Amino acid sequence: MFEDIQLNVPLLRRRVPNLTTAARRVGLRAATVSNLCTGKIPVARAEVRTLVALAALAGCRLDELIIRGGGVGMIETGIKVVDVFAPIVRGGTIGFVARPGMGQLVLLAELFRRLQQRQFATVFWMPGEEAIGISDVVAEVEVVCHSLDEVQDEVSNLRTDKDVLLGVDRSMVLSGELATLKERIQEAGARPVTVVLVDTLGHGADEESPYGPLDTLLRFDADLAARGFYPAVDPVISTSTLLEGAQLEAAHLNIQQRARKMLRRYRELRALVNIRGVEKVPASDMETYRRGERLEAFFTQPFFVAEAFTGKPGEHVVLTDTLECIRRIMDGEADDLDVSEVQYVGRIEFQP
C-alpha cells in the first residue's frame, strides 16, 4: 500500500529555495533529503521525523508533502475503443495519427473535457499554424500557451497539485521544443504529465513513426471516417505499451485479443462483400461477419463535445461494462439486434 507514494518535490523546492541549507539547520542530513527528492530513497523508507521536519520547513501538512497515486497506469477515459484497444498511459506520450477531417481534434477536445472532470489540469500548446478545429480544442482547456517558456511555467505550477494533460502539435516534436520541455520538467515527485500529440496538418500520416517512440498509438482509419463511424480510431492497428507489457487485467487482455482477431477477419470478409456481395461469404464465416459488423458498430460513441451537432447526449462507458458488452456480442447475444441498435450507443441493454 506504500509503493505508490512520492514526495511533492516541486512544492518543497518552491517553498524552501535553499533546501539543503534549511535541512541542515533542523538537523537533517543533506544527502538524505537529496536522495528523497530524486527518488533514490523511497518515501516509504523515510523516517517519520524526517518527513515531519520537511513539512514544517515547507509550511504545509504532511498529506500535502506526500503525493499518493503517482504511479504509471491506465487512464480510463470512458471512450470504448480507446480503453479497450489503446489504453492511455498515465504520464506517457500518446500520438494521434490521422489525416485532416478524420476527427482527431474532436477526440482531443473530448479527452480534455472528460479528464478535466476527473480533476486533471488541461493545457494546450498552440501550434504556429492554426488548423480547422483548433478553436473547439481551445474551448475545452483551462490553459492555452503560445511558447515553450509559457508551457514550462504553467505545467510546472499545475502539476504540483494535479495530473496534467498536455496537448501538443507535431510541429513542436519536429522543432525539438517538446524534447526540451520534457528535459526541463523532469522532476521527481511531481504529478505526472500526460502528453497527447496531434498532427493538425496531417503531414505525418504516411510515416511509419511520425512522432518517434510512443506509449500509446491511436491511428485513425479513413474507411471508418468515410462511413461516419466516429471516433474513427482503428481498433486493429492502434495499441498501447500497457497491452504489450501485460499490465492490464487478464480478462481485459483476453477480450481485447478476441475482439481484434474478429475485427481483422471481419474486414477481410467485408472487402469480399463490397466486391461480390454478401452471398459470396462462406457459410462457415457468416457468423463471424455478422458479429464483426455489430462489434465494429458498437465502437462508435456519442461525444459530449459534439452534442450540439449530433443531437445525441454524450456517453461515458466504464471499462467493465464495455468489456462485458464486447464479450456478449462475440458470444452471439446481439445476433438478433439490428446493427443500428448497437451503433452510437453507450452500453447495450441486453434482454434477460
TrEMBL record:
Signal peptide: none annotated. Its main location: membrane. The keyword Ion transport applies. Keywords: ATP synthesis, ATP-binding, CF(1), Ion transport, Membrane, Nucleotide-binding, Translocase, Transport. It holds the Pfam family ATP-synt_ab. Residues 78-142 form the ATPase F1/V1/A1 complex alpha/beta subunit nucleotide-binding domain. PROSITE patterns: ATPASE_ALPHA_BETA. It is found in: Membrane. Transmembrane segments: none annotated. Belongs to the ATPase alpha/beta chains family. This is ATPase F1/V1/A1 complex alpha/beta subunit nucleotide-binding domain-containing protein. It comes from Alicyclobacillus dauci.
